[in-house]
């Protein structure tokens, strides 16, 4: 978490060193973002290689995002206690080793387990890297620009994942999407050792292990039911038991957090409408992005017969929009506050979803590319103002907690988006996939419209 880093004294680092730290941490964040989406375009090839269907492939994606979401906050707390650079380096090592196991996986079970291990490593990178960056840049305006760059890199990583995956699969096969992580991890380890200073919290927070366990149970059961619901039946005895266990774990989590002196998730923050709406908005943006990417991959490869490379290349407008608009969004937030970029984000995402709500087997390619561009632009505008809205008006001692909760919400949204889109596609053949995806594109539109609500709740 970023609690003490936001309360840090002015940084002794030179301007060049501060921006070098940002670049090094952004490289690692790029790796995390790419691995959230690079597997999407690989799914049909992985399915053929490991002889598994759509539901099993959903687990290969969500094992990563669920574990990442469940451990983000506790990893930040560990970094505050034992040293941010040290935990960051451990995360890189775990991530790199797990990537090698993914590349060598002989079965779906091994791949899912290795993807979960990747999530463990990634959880040590995302919040810790941001804490390092914020700690290095105490000036609010410089920090706003840095967050804009950060959002740009993260947006770019999420959007170019499918493009990168398509290129690698065309050249080397699906296992290459995991092999590629090894040289990046090695380079990041060297750069972190050379350029990133160590930092710790002056007063580390106590670990909330009961809260951590209950949060993991809630996330795992919720996503598991979404993935397996179409197969086991939404009203089956197994599903009903899962509903009860999820509600019991959620109730237990609330009770534990309200009674804990230093809770994993400070539920009192949700009493503030801007914070609560920003957290939900962050989840909604990632639901929209991941629904779009997965439905796009399955539709283009199964229904239209496109290759993974062509399918990945179709997301280039999305990557372009996210890359160009994320730093612009950071600038707008620094000058005018979060409301204007949030309105732009919601409008563009909703427009992109509307373009495909009547998707057919023969929908023209320009319409598909336009939808991707609009969604990418909206995604680029969204991240910086949502982070700003979550932490605005809070004491610095609580801003780090708010940032960590927002990051968790993003990954929860990613997991839910994959599960929902996969459920729509699982029962549809190639000919029916376009029609089956219509509720998904309506969901993307609704997520965009919800950001307009978040904009109204934000403070300029």
UniProtKB/TrEMBL annotation:
PROSITE patterns: MFS, SUGAR_TRANSPORT_1. Its main location: membrane. This is MFS transporter. Keywords: Antibiotic resistance, Cell membrane, Membrane, Transmembrane, Transmembrane helix, Transport. It is found in: Cell membrane. Residues 21-460 form the Major facilitator superfamily (MFS) profile domain. Belongs to the major facilitator superfamily. EmrB family. It is a multi-pass membrane protein. InterPro entries: EmrB-like, MFS, MFS_dom, MFS_trans_sf, Sugar_transporter_CS. The chain crosses the membrane at residues 21-43, 63-79, 91-114, 120-137, 149-172, 178-197, 209-227, 233-254, 275-295, 315-334, 341-359, 365-391, 412-434, 440-458.
